[in-house]
Amino acid sequence: MFNSFIKAVNFLRANGNTAALVYDDMLGETGLAFDKKTNIPSVNMGYWKHIDDTKSDKIHQANRAMFRLVSEAASFSENDEKVVDIGCGFATNMKYCLDNHKINNIVGLNISPIQTAWANRYLHQEGHSAKAIVILGSATSMPFADASVDKMISIEAAFHFETRELFLKEVMRVLKPGGILSLADLIICKPRSSMQKLLVKSIMKTLSVPGENVYDYDDYVLLMQKCGLEILEVEQLKNEVTIPFRKWCRKRPVALLFKYNFLWSIASIGFMFAKLDYIRVLARKK
Which of 89, 107, 184, 216 has the fewest C-beta atoms lying within 10 Å of its C-beta? Predict the structure, then answer.
């Protein structure tokens, strides 16, 4: 525990903390929760609309529901030559897409070395390595050629990117004309009081959220339009995502704070009280 304490102090004092540091140094290979039945970690908040309670093990069911929501919106086809999952985590959504849709080639892009290595082992173990690979790279400087991607998905990752606007410009660059982006993302809203400012600063530090990404739901929609994307579907999901996820967090044993990192968890208290929102968007490159 002493090493965990020192790690936490260094993390909170350091400048330039990155999403890779958050996921690799703080959450490691277990993520937010670890499914003991499948030995699969979860790192997303989940979609809780049709889930009747927020017990500990329900997070994995909620994660799969989010995968289904985003992947079905993308309308994958065997004619898609390249599908990309941006900020793909442990590749659990990639596996869901391969198991449930006709996809010939999917590439995951992730900034976390630990998650990238875990994801490739997992895809190989599940028999998907011929159709899927996860590569280390940045969402704001994607290693893909112009107009080379048919469909792009991203679940709860863009709030980390420096910045979302640069990411969306990259989306416009790499998508083919008529290409699709299916995205779900957490929104840290603009603070409107001194207390909210403190809470948002806490989130920015512990979750590696650039200040440029702090704005409201309507601003997010306008940004996507500004970047040239045609919005086909958009919905606000805070009642189905952030609110039930907070309930799930509150039901977790206090001892789990020590499992991850006590000070990091305490500093993340802002996440429980700051104004949050959530968006799902289906958009097309004209």
Answer: 216
